[in-house]
Records
---
Amino acid sequence: MAQGSWYDADIDHVIISEEQIREKIAELAKQVAADYAPVADGLLLVCVLKGAVMFMADFARALGRHGPPAELEFMALSSYGQGSTSSGVVRIRKDLDRDIAGRHVVVVEDIVDSGLTLSWLLRYLESRAAASVEVVALFRKPDAIKVSVPVKYVGFDIPSEFVVGYGLDFGERYREVPYVGVLKPEVYARS
Ligand code: XMP
Ligand code: MG
């Protein structure tokens, strides 16, 4: 591990390394580029803030090497009520800046857990008359299979543990960690 980052002492173990993330994103981008090669007016990538911000940045650049042109859009949603489990009650905190009617949309998601947030978002995007909507999610947890939400492109299936890094946070911290890992129990005890 790189010497001396503030967060190293807080991470119990790494689940997915920086290198694995980089390789997987290159693969996902190639698949998406191949599937959307015929799309003349380009793709609309919709990033769900804040967790997917790192993935959006790296995925968009990887896609740029092989794929059709892409436009980058950002949305912010609140899906959690009080606790740490998805309620399925979604509030839009930042909406799309443009009309997506007739456009081919790819939702760029960090992690699909229960799938409730995503299934709400897919219905919303379809209601705005997108020509097509697909999802690329870097991580998926086993609970995701309980809700039938069609995620066409998945990076990694990971265990049902709370993870941080690469955009994912605990209390707004650890988003800048370049890999994905599990926090030490004492970090939770501290907060
Ligand atoms: P659902 O359950 O609706 O929720 O699929 C997906 C959203 O929940 C967040 N999430 C996590 N955030 N570590 C995080 O930092 C995790 O392990 C985790 N699991 C789910 C995330 O915002 C995701 O978009
Ligand atoms: Mg998210």
---
Amino acid sequence: PRGTVRDDDGRIVVAGIALTDVAQEHGTPTYVIDEADFRSRAAEFRDSFAGWSIFYAGKALLTKTVARWAFEEGLNLDVTTMGEMRIALAGGMPAERLGFHGNNKSDEEIEFALEQGVGRIIVDSFDEIARLERACEAGGHTARVLVRVTTGVEAHTHEYIATAHEDQKFGLSIMGGQALTALVRCHSSRFLDLAGIHSHIGSQIFETHGFEVAIRRTMRLASQFRTATGVELAELDLGGGFGIAYVGADSPLATAEIAAAFEEMVEHECRGFGLSRPHLSIEPGRAICGPAGVALYRVGTVKIVELEGGRSRVYVSVDGGMSDNIRPALYAAEYSAAIANRNSSARPVLCRVVGKHCEGGDILIRDVFLPSDIAIGDLIAVPGSGAYARSMANNYNQIPKPPVVAAKDGVTSVMLRRETLDDIMRLDVGK
Ligand code: LLP
């Protein structure tokens, strides 16, 4: 997080609190979220994208407290399930500021969203449109909808997190014609209030080219829709995906730069197609909560493994792993690390930081230089862990999920408590 320093004793201090104190109070592993950092990144999106609606993507990290921060910073919230809706609402986010996503929303979820008055539903298939219409008819509701489209953009990111190419589960294809058909279908529905188009091209993206193509193709679609119906669409949502720096080689664009580029692209395409400027929105998740968070682990064993050619590698085992951060195993995601409890002037050696799971692929950081005197009991801080770590955590090997702790002005408060073995045992109702 911003403003992170080492104090005179060499301890890393986040939001005015030494991580050693966090470890003492809350144990390890723990995720620490710097509240001021989260808020300032949220505010940066709000201010840079003036006049746009910013939907914080709750899938990246969502607790009631986080929903409240997003609300207080003037953001809306992107939710994808009943669980995310429930937490967002419980955190005080008004239903009309929710955007409800998903490629397989259940009847129960749809009915809940309609009853609560969720602001917009992003429809993802013809089946869903029919399901939504039935629910509206039964409950006497009208749903404001955006149609999620596939723009055919090949986003430059990991295959599993690129979502605009044709052969994947999300959206309706512009190229194949289903997107226009769906828009016309929603427009002509008595139960639906068509707001516009939604495009999300992928995640952890560092350049604006893919967005540029997506803007051109969605605006062309809007123009085709106007030709078909005589009506201009009111809204365009460009999704999320703004990358953050996990390691030195990552160079994200500044939020203001992205905003300026998007403004220019939209203006250009509006002029080109003779369309008036739609209301615009984006859905950043990682870029708001990722850098605000750090994961804290305790070193349990240090093992030197001899390699061929007289080389060796230091395996540093920590008390978490692929259950609290699946991203390295799933996407070959890279992270950095630092010893959090002390300075060291020992020479840096190549280490591999691994977890405690029964699996060879349980690697948190494949290659990282750490001081050669790294030892049992040291604390390791992994920056960038605010996004998609706790939210994708699991109980592999029956390990309870770590807590999420908010840090502000030298004080921590638990927003999500540590899961206990009792929590886990309670679910096992067999005899
Ligand atoms: N909007 C939609 C429709 C999305 O599907 C996503 C991410 C976002 C916004 C937010 O994207 P962000 O700004 O956070 O990149 N779990 C993966 C990434 C997949 C995210 C899926 N959707 C990861 O750990 O990198």
